[in-house]
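To: structure subgroup
Subject: Chain for Friday's discussion

All,

I'm putting the inputs and outputs inline so they're searchable in the archive.
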Amino acid sequence: MIRPKLSLRRPLAVLAAALIGLTGAAAVATPAAAHHTTITATVVCDQLSGERVITWTVANSERRTAATVKKVTAEPSTPVQVLVPGAEPVDLQGVAIPRGGSVQAVQRVPGTTESAKLIVEGRWDNRREKTNEGTINLAADGACTPAPKCVDASEAKYSHTFDGPKGTATVKLEGDLPLCGEEKQYFTLVSYFAPRPQFATPQYVYGEPDSDFLGAGQNEIELNVGVPDCHTQVDLIWGGVDEVIDPLVENGKRYGSKKLGDKGAPGNRSSGPQGWYNGGSKNCTTPASTFASACDGSVTVSLSNDGSISKYPVEFEVRGENGWSKTVTVEPGKADNETVVPAENAGKIEVLVDGEVIENGTYSWERPEDCPLPTVTTDADCETFGLTASNPEGGMPVKVEFTYGDKTETRTVAPGSSEKVTFPAGDEEVALVVLPELGLELEVVYAPEGCGGGGGGEEPPGLPVTGAAAGGIAAGAIALLALGAVLFVMARRRRIHFTA
C-alpha cells in the first residue's frame, strides 16, 4: 500500500497568517483602549467686552473609571473655569470627569486672538495618566470688537417725511444709538418763488428757511416753512442754512444729491420720499391795470407789477378795438403809465397776461365829468329860428339833433367847431336839442319880442337873446346863457328850458 506523502508547508502558512492577523488587531485596539481625554471647543464674540468666549469640552474616554484633571495649560494663558450653577466658577484643574462623561470649561481671550490651545493632563483611578490637547482657529471669524455705544455722524442713517405743498418735513435718526459725543447733523427745509410750476430759473428764497440738527440727545426734528401762493419749489436738504442757494439761477449751483431721498450720497443716507417739490397754480407776479378816460376819447392804461409776490417781469398785452394792440413789459416792483389807447380804439379795451385777461382788465371809454360841454346859441326873429351848437377844443366829436315842429336836423360837431341849423318860424313855441351820446336834452322856447302871438311874423322881429336865459330849469339844473349861449349840463334825460 502506498501512503501519500504529507507536506507541512500549507498548514504552517495558514498558522502564520492567523498569528499576523491577531497581532494587527491588538496593535489597532491598543490606542483605542488607552485612557485619554478628547478636547473640543466652540467660540462666540462677547460684543459688550470685545472678548472671545471659548467653551472647552473635555470628555473622559473611560466608561468604568472617572478621570481627574491633574494639570491644565492654556494658550493664551487666561483662566479656564467650570461654570457651576448657583456658585462661583472653579478652575478646570482638579475637576473630576465622570466615567464616560465630560465637563465644560470657559476661557475668555482677547478679541484679536487668532487661535487657542488647551492641554489637559488626566489621571484615572487605576493610576494611569495621559496628556491630550485641543486647538481652535479663531481667525476665520475676523476680529471680535465691542458693540458701539453710539454711531458716528459720518456713518449714521436717517429716515424722513416730506410734504412740499404744505412746507413740512421730519427727519429721524435710525437705530437705537445716538450720535457720538457732541456731533450734530443739520437738515434744512427751504421754499422758493419760481417762474413755472415745473423746475425753472431764476428762483428766489421765500421767507426764512427752517434748519435744525440731530445729535446732543435730539433724535428727531420737525421742519416747517411758508410756501408762496404761486409757483414754488420746496427742498429738504442735507446741511445747515449755509447750504441754502439764493437765488437759483441758470447754470448756477444746484443741490443735487444733497436733497434727501436722492439716489446719491449724502441724500441716500435718509430713507423716505423724494425731498423736493415743484408746483403752484399761478404766477409769482401781481399784474394789475387801471384806466383813465380823456375828454378826447382816448384812454390811458396804467400797468403795474408791484406786490408781495412780484418777483418776475410781466409782459402785458393791451388790446383795443379794430385790431389795435401794444405789448409792454413791466419789471417787478415797477409800473408803466405810458400806454394810450386812441379814441377810435377805446370802445373796448382788454389787458392780457399769458393770453388771459387779468382781473379787472376790461374797460370802455367813459366821458370824464370835468370835460367841457357843448353850448347852444340862438338867433331868432319873426321869420326864422336859428340854433347853433359849439363843441369846445379837446373834446370828442358830438352828435346833435335839432328838432322844431315836424322837422329834425342832425349834425356832428367836431371839437373846436360849430354847426348851425335854421328853421322857418312856425307856431310851435319849443325847439328840442338832443345830444344822444351824452344823454342830454335842451328845450329852447321860441318867443321873439314884437312879433305878436306865438311867432309867424305878425309883429316886428326882436333882437337875438343876450344876457341871462329866461325859461324853466328842469330837475334843479341851471343853465346860463351868455350872449345867447346855453351851457349843457351833465344830466341824463334832463331838459333845460330857454326862451329865445
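Points worth raising on Friday:
The two ends are 203 Å apart (CA to CA).
The longest helix spans residues 9-33.

D.
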